[in-house]
């Protein structure tokens, strides 16, 4: 008997031309290469700047390299001919540049109608900021992200967030658009243009602040925004105590994960503080009306937690599975996390320059399909000759008679989003997703796919998705995570409810499950059980840690995973104090800084949700192309590690990654925050070719060009502190608004800092409105409100924004659809099996 061949990876046989020059494109094409695509990275003479960073063996792995100088007509022609034979092209030029090079979507689509053309920008393709340089720091400044994390630095003022959340997120929104377009191409045979941006990517990380602000606008006398900490540095909400950051007896920092009432009660029991729930003075814990009471309670918790060493706390965690904390790790240490090793999310790879490396494995693990890196990072230009020979030997993609849709005007897309009845279908029209999950980290991933046309049936508990109850205004906390879904409220502890899920599984394409380990099996909604109902199901398990292993049953929330991944210490900088002898007066402000660093401006919830959407699309596309319906695993921990992946690689002789200065101004004098005469600016001019323009723009206020200390890039690097001082003196002479106006006019990266939080800029600022990133919908009880439009814009099948449902709004209709009579549904409601809206 002949052996059954292994199924091919989901993207095997697809050709990708990568013209991108920055991290978002590199991360997007890394995923495409990991899952089987042949990625040709077209680099400029001298190579991609990412080659000079320690993570280049990770970011460039599995790709081929060709060197082309797009300033030359012959090389531009070669790039066009490569695109004519490609399935996907990825570029990160500023709007209009690709068109000028003859590499824009309209020109390429004429020759290759099947091409999926992906553009990743900083601010989008239209609006007042579209033409600006899209450095991540500039985008964060304009979004209010640096003001958002004011308090993270050991000084007054805004802080520089070092984790590259916007780049990571833009990579995944680009992947959502590209993979959805490829899925749609399987049916139509036609490609289309896909756009994503750093602005839209970062917007994915806000679970509820947006809607909290809308509520406060509408009801100003009843609700006002509240900062998480008072002016005296005291928590204003009980959530800070549920997610306690504390110091151990042996001087290590811990982040607890006790958000639910039963988890917090067990935490109080192991602290020896359960008596407080019976004491009239403290029984409302962890929520108190007065700042004095909150501060005293905080101090009691910190002192009690400090009574154990890390090892003693680990004994508590082993004995009490509902009590859990992560030790604050450095980013490189995530490779040694026991759950990462158990999940096989760490891989060893030989690199011809770096030698033996340890790096992150492909983020989504497929059970039936072998997924592994295609090889090490290529030598610069190693495949130039072969790539050029291929375009000489192979014919271009055939030009079909089918008309290619030109990109639609953005205003027309916005109008379609507002008029749902006439909206064109999204690329995932016809796909049904059955969602079994809670909170944000996995369920927002299916909300993203609902915007792209998928039907998402969410199974909610009888009491509702927990996020419905995190805000004082009903449902405000859950609006974003429920957008575009159908709500079916069932008690899965009841056999009748589980039968409903089984019937739904027979009609679904995909199941998303994010319960803690063991829950799906206990409820009979695990992959094996549901696949007996429908062998074609793609089943994604997306827990915090894993479906088994050392941490699988531990509660995982965004700050905890931010700590475990190393993101928190990366952002908080080297000035966080450590050691067993710290006074309480030092512990409290440091714990605030660490808390901010663990969850802003991006967070593990947003990272995980973006990864969930990508993994679901990979599974769907793999089934369409190979017929294999796979079991897939993603985890919050591994996906978040990718967001700080620049430091999640280890090999002998590895240089240190760029880290912020101790006061969290930025990476260097030419990429950092400066205080102006009024306001703050972020300056981004790190490239050698930008130096002369910067000197000319600043010449009326100081002679940088004539200072021999800064004559060459090497001189500027070795005298970075002196350069920062010189720039600081110059930039302090005028307002931030004046500097932004003049430096942007000189085509330099500069932004006056917007006030935080990020949601404020997204909801109100032209940065989102004029770029076409917003839509309006009518919520059943929330009324008409603004929300994000689909995070990836597709030219031909753009999808549409829809509102969130009320609890059980679709229970009756969905149960009738799967065969239940009106009498049976009434009985389910009467007996508490189901809730109808």
Short summary:
With 837 residues, the protein is of the alpha/beta class. Helix content is 38%, strand content 14%.
Q: What can you tell me about this protein's structure?
A:
Among the domains are: 162 residues, no CATH class; 201 residues, Rossmann fold (3-Layer(aba) Sandwich), CATH 3.40.50.10540; 90 residues, formyl-coa transferase, domain 3. Strand 21 and strand 22 form a beta hairpin. Helix 1 packs across helix 8, helix 18 crosses helix 26 and helix 23 crosses helix 25. About 3% of the residues have low confidence. The longest helix has 24 residues. 38% of the residues lie in helices and 14% in strands. The chain contains 35 helices and 27 strands. The chain has 837 residues and is an alpha/beta fold. The strands form six sheets. Strands 12-18-17-16-13-14-15-27 form an eight-stranded mixed beta sheet, with helices on both faces. Strands 3-2-1-4-5-6-26 form a seven-stranded mixed beta sheet, with helices on both faces. Strands 20-21-22-23 form a four-stranded antiparallel beta sheet, sandwiched between helices. The radius of gyration is 26 Å and the shape is globular.
